Structure formats: structure tokens, C-alpha cells
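dude i think i finally got it to work??
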Amino acid sequence: MKIDRSTKSNALNTLIDPAGTKSSGKASTLDETTRDKDSVELSGVRADVAKLVSRVKETPVIRQDKVDAIKAAIENGTYKIDGQQLARSILKNNLLDEML
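look at this
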């Protein structure tokens, strides 16, 4: 079998356009027109998430008002610790850490 340039070209064209249809400039113009009309609408979830993220960033890591209140209670001798609640919290946190 002899392979010449025309056979290579025909084989390549068959691979590129198996249906044998020739593309015209009209298809690309149609695609450009259609592309201009396409649009995407995002739901309000993105805005809600952005608001929540900004609120989290604004919230201080240390709540100074609580720290000040506890300090004042300790200084006054009015700060009471519930031993059972403390033990429950410690156990709960340890169990969660082990599960995760």
C-alpha cells in the first residue's frame, strides 16, 4: 500500500470531522451571539455566607467582657465553680476528641 500526501490529508480530515461536514464562518458567529446571551445567576446563599464570614472575622477570639466579669468575681470571692459541670465538660470534650 502506497501512502501519499493526499491519503494522509484525507485520513486526518476524517479524524477531525468524521461526519464530513465542513464548518462555515456562520457557526462561530452563532456561537458568539449565543455566548453574549448566556448568563449565570447565583443564589442568595453566597451573600449569606459572605455575611457570616465577615461576622466571624469581626468576633474577637477572646471575649474580654466575660474575662473581666470572671476576674471581678474571683477578686470579690463570688466566683463559684460547679464541680459536676466541670467534670462533665472535661469528659465530654475528651470523648469528642477521641471520636474525631
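Residues 83-99 form the longest helix (17 residues).
im so relieved honestly
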